[in-house]
Automatic annotation (TrEMBL):
This is tRNA-2-methylthio-N(6)-dimethylallyladenosine synthase. CDD domains: Radical_SAM. It comes from Pontibacter chinhatensis. The keyword Endoplasmic reticulum does not apply. SMART domains: Elp3. Catalyzes the methylthiolation of N6-(dimethylallyl)adenosine (i(6)A), leading to the formation of 2-methylthio-N6-(dimethylallyl)adenosine (ms(2)i(6)A) at position 37 in tRNAs that read codons beginning with uridine.
């Protein structure tokens, strides 16, 4: 993964890159299941890892309904776009993609097209009116209803279900792993978000926060280990507020305890998680990370801004000092080598030049390993859209964003230089993009490490002596 992704800022993109702009992941297209079912589903995911994980649930539901997955859109009877609303560009990407899909639909008029995910939830049935080729609009909590909705469309109607739920976690559904490297997998541990960051559309598109049954999470991790997986990433918008209680109240599990349960599944299973919220990350979580070697020493801790007034306007519920205190705790408990990354928003409503400088100085202080960086994009219906003026001119937003990117490149490089001359334990995920003679994996801190393959293969843990680095990658040699 290229650590510095600023796709909102780059305009000469391929459709795939543009899709990735929806957030910081690549758009993934389904792998084939090919079990001889009568119909075929093609699903494309945009946005955050939660969406990618949801697409695996959707594929499982549709598989039981007689749909194999296909990676060839022309073979598809049913096309799903699992969409993101986080920034305006994310939605525009999907609309452009619908234009392209129209071309396939003209060739094959019986092909059904469904919009799933956050855009479906935000725009509801108006999507049917705005985008004529869309047959189904299904929000993130309504996927169990997909078979029924698809039947409606089979019967010649359009179908919409955007009901949000307070309980749905899809805990009992066995995801079909899509585009998996067979080494690392995502496990959704919660859904929704109860924070109300003023810039953010997620609470509206994903509904209230709810935590998934801890036992079902552990069982999923055990099943993955049995299938040979070596790494799981526990997913939630704010994992630190994970809280699950058994029905009889005899069991209460917080995030630190869940982390421990998953770490105990196997010492050979690496455990990662995302996203940590600065207001909620506890020392207990940090001590649990320290206690288990297989919990990766890497924390994605989005700051959004380095200025307390802006943070207050963003309704992040922490200030600069609080954030710094959490970073100091990470360094104290887990050491200087613990990886830390961030998300940053440039040009939020009324942000002054000095306040922007505070973001840069926070980046200097923390020395992030990397960041995902965006300029502010007003989202309809959010607190900021209703109460604050989007008054920083686009050119200023872009310039500030560029300064943030330049700063991040500098700190990423600094942090990577510290890794040179040391041995890192790398979990091999794939061949390197450039050559099959090299393998690519990640170290504990989530950094990509490239090295000559020798006799090693995907899924191996390899000790690699790092001898060189770029802004985004470490390079080395395996030490036997
Ligand atoms: N739950 C995570 C964030 C999920 S959204 C958290 O609290 O950190 C991923 C990132 O998109 C956010 O961290 C933020 O940096 C960015 N983002 C969200 N809304 C945005 C908006 N309206 N404009 C620009 N960036 C935004
Ligand atoms: Fe959005 Fe804030 Fe929730 Fe993250 S914590 S999903 S930024 S509302
Ligand atoms: Fe986008 Fe929805 Fe995720 S808005 S970032 S896909 S939760």
């Amino acid at each position: 993964m290229e650590p510095i992704v600023d796709l909102d800022f780059i305009d000469n993109r391929t459709p795939e890159q543009a899709a990735a702009a929806a957030n910081s992941c690549d758009t993934k297209v389904t792998e084939e299941t090919n079990t001889g079912k009568s119909r075929k589903l093609y699903i494309e995911s945009y946005g955050c890892q939660m969406n990618f994980s949801d697409s695996e649930i959707v594929s499982s539901i549709m598989f039981d309904q007689g749909f194999d997955t296909t990676s060839d859109i022309e073979q598809a009877d049913l096309v799903f776009l699992n969409t993101c609303s986080i920034r305006e560009k994310a939605e525009q990407t999907v609309r452009n993609r619908l234009g392209q899909i129209n071309y396939y639909k003209k060739k094959k008029p019986e092909m059904m097209v469904g919009i799933l995910g956050c855009m479906a939830e935000r725009l509801k049935k108006s999507l049917l009116e705005e985008e004529k080729i869309v047959d189904l609009v299904v929000g993130p909590d309504a996927y169990r209803d997909l078979p029924n909705l698809v039947n409606h469309v089979d019967g010649g109607q359009k179908a919409v279900n955007v009901l949000l739920s307070r309980e749905e976690t899809y805990a009992d559904i066995n995801p079909i792993r899509l585009n998996s490297n067979g080494v690392s997998a995502f496990i959704s541990i919660m859904r929704g978000c109860d924070n109300m960051c003023s810039f953010c559309v997620v609470p509206f598109t994903r509904g209230r926060e709810r935590s998934r049954d801890a036992h079902s999470i552990v069982r999923e991790a055990e099943a993955l280990v049995a299938q040979g997986y070596k790494e799981v990433t526990l997913l939630g918008q704010n994992v630190d507020s994970y809280k699950w209680a058994s029905e009889d109240g005899s069991e209460n599990v917080n995030f630190a305890q869940l982390l421990e349960k998953v770490a105990l599944v196997s010492p050979d299973l690496r455990v990662r998680f995302s996203t940590s919220h600065p207001k909620d990350i506890t020392d207990e979580v940090l001590y649990t990370m320290k206690k288990y070697d297989n919990i990766c020493k890497y924390i994605h801790l989005p700051a959004q801004s380095g200025n307390s007034r802006v943070l207050e306007l963003m309704n992040r519920t922490y200030d600069r000092d609080w954030y710094i205190n959490r970073v100091d705790a990470i360094r104290r408990i887990l050491g200087e080598d613990c990886g830390i990354s961030s998300d940053m928003i440039a040009g939020f409503c009324s942000e002054t030049e000095e306040e922007h400088q505070d973001t840069l100085s926070l980046m200097d202080y923390v020395q992030y390993d990397y960041s995902y960086m965006f300029f502010y994009s007003e989202r309809p219906g959010t607190l900021a859209a209703r109460k604050l003026e989007d008054d920083v001119p686009l050119e200023v937003k872009k310039r500030r964003l560029q300064e943030i990117i330049d700063k991040q490149r500098e700190t990423s490089h600094n942090r990577n230089k510290r890794d040179v001359g040391k041995v890192h334990k790398v979990l091999v995920e794939n061949f390197s993009k450039k050559s099959d003679e090299f393998l690519s994996g990640r170290n504990d801190q989530n950094k990509v490490v490239i090295f000559p393959k020798k006799h090693y293969k995907k899924g191996d843990y390899v000790n690699v002596f790092v001898n060189d680095c770029s802004v985004g990658t470490l390079f080395g040699e395996a030490v036997d």
